[in-house]
Design goal:
- This protein is mainly α.
């Protein structure tokens, strides 16, 4: 955290609530979840990492949960919003831009595949 001032206990608590909101709702919705941390990095106070939506869709298929890829994407959006909503519910407020910045980034990345082209679901083709 070079160059950053230490976070207060209040800010650490808010970050923990925020990241837990992403993680808990993501797991409830069956999303593939990686690391969750309140360790700050160069551009965030913490993060919850979700797997690629197509990987989640394939894992659901293997478990007999036959749903469309768009269902995975809606779950990802809900999990993205859950961080800020958890702060509002538990603490009473959130950083004004938190949910909107993250959700906008999430929705944009879900509309583009890893080659910079519109994702198949977005272009109206069949799920992978």
């Amino acid at each position: 955290m070079t160059g950053r001032k230490p976070r207060s206990a209040r800010r650490l608590n808010a970050t923990a609530v925020h990241e837990a909101g992403h993680a808990v709702i993501g797991r409830v919705l069956g999303m593939e979840l990686g690391e969750v941390t309140i360790e700050a990095d160069h551009d965030s106070s913490g993060h919850a990492i979700f797997g690629d939506p197509c990987d989640t869709w394939e894992a659901w298929q293997k478990r007999g949960r036959y749903r469309s890829v768009s269902t995975v994407l809606v779950g990802r959006i809900i999990a993205s919003l859950a961080g800020a909503l958890a702060e509002i519910e538990v603490i009473g407020s959130t950083a004004p831009r938190a949910c909107f910045r993250i959700s906008a980034e999430t929705m944009m990345t879900m509309c583009v595949d890893y080659h910079g082209k519109p994702a198949a679901w977005f272009a109206g083709t069949a799920a992978p």
